[in-house]
Design goal:
- α6 runs parallel beside α7 and α7 packs parallel to α8.
- The model has no long low-confidence stretch (mean pLDDT 96).
- This protein starts with a helix and ends with a helix.
- Helix content is 45%, strand content 15%.
- The chain is an alpha/beta fold.
- This is Isocitrate lyase/phosphoenolpyruvate mutase family protein.
- It comes from Amycolatopsis acididurans.
- InterPro entries: ICL/PEPM, Pyrv/PenolPyrv_kinase-like_dom, Pyrv_kinase-like_dom_sf.
């Protein structure tokens, strides 16, 4: 399936819901349930392969898993590609597109040091991926400055600055992961309007009314499935 179909599903106020999965079988379950897109979760895929999250899994295994997932379904697939696994933008893009995926998450955390890259450096990387991919890849640029922050409003200006830079570099959507306040998310969406924003679930918040275009469940389904299995095994 084409990137154009995936891109067209990003409509502010009518969010695309993505139940993130981790292998070909769970991808088929999502498609059979009627979802128009399959998305992966890096933490779940890595765990299914025996590795931790944060680019600890070999890139060859992560891309092989993505190829199996894309080959198992007929709907567009978008891959949580973490921070690009240290690959140069052209190599990253070529290898990702070779899996059959038409979209990806790219986060701005530098896993070598565990902190977000400078905004200009990340924007340059995103621009290079866009140039390499053309219109064949939907880029969801993840913004990590809200993670593990008690005062999220304090980093809102930086988050908005990063979002605008990433959109200018060619990202189709921006993902301020970890925002826990509907008010903060609403201000973020308003500041980058009419761009597509990927939100995460916030208790009691109507994300559609906030204007988000995409909602990711991240590792939630994997954690829930693993938790159910652990409880069932204890009962046995």
């Amino acid at each position: 399936m084409t990137a154009a179909k995936l891109r067209a599903l990003h409509v502010p106020g009518e969010p695309l819901l993505l139940p993130n999965i981790w292998d070909a079988d769970t991808a088929r379950v999502v498609e059979e349930a009627g979802f128009p897109v399959v998305a992966t979760s890096s933490v779940a895929v890595a765990a299914s392969l025996g590795f931790g999250d944060g680019e600890k899994a070999p890139v060859e295994e992560m891309f092989a898993a993505a190829a199996r997932i894309a080959g198992a379904v007929s709907v567009p697939v978008t891959v949580d590609a973490e921070s690009g696994y240290g690959l140069a933008p052209r190599e990253f893009t070529d290898r990702l597109l070779a899996t059959g995926a038409v979209g990806c998450n790219l986060e701005d955390t530098d896993h070598a040091v565990g902190t977000p890259r400078p905004v200009a450096e990340q924007a340059e990387r995103l621009a290079a991926v866009r140039q390499a991919a053309g219109a064949d890849l939907v880029i969801n640029a993840r913004i990590d400055v809200f993670l593990r922050k008690d005062d999220q409003r304090a980093v809102l200006p930086e988050g908005i600055e990063r979002a605008r830079a990433y959109l200018e570099a060619g990202a189709d959507c921006v993902y301020p992961i970890g925002i826990r306040s509907a008010d903060v998310l609403g201000e973020f969406v308003e500041a980058v309007r009419p761009a597509a924003v990927n939100g995460n679930r916030i208790d009691g918040a109507d994300l559609a009314s906030l204007g988000v275009a995409r909602v990711s469940l991240g590792g939630g389904l994997w954690a829930a499935a693993r938790g159910w299995l652990a409880r069932y095994l204890k009962q046995l």
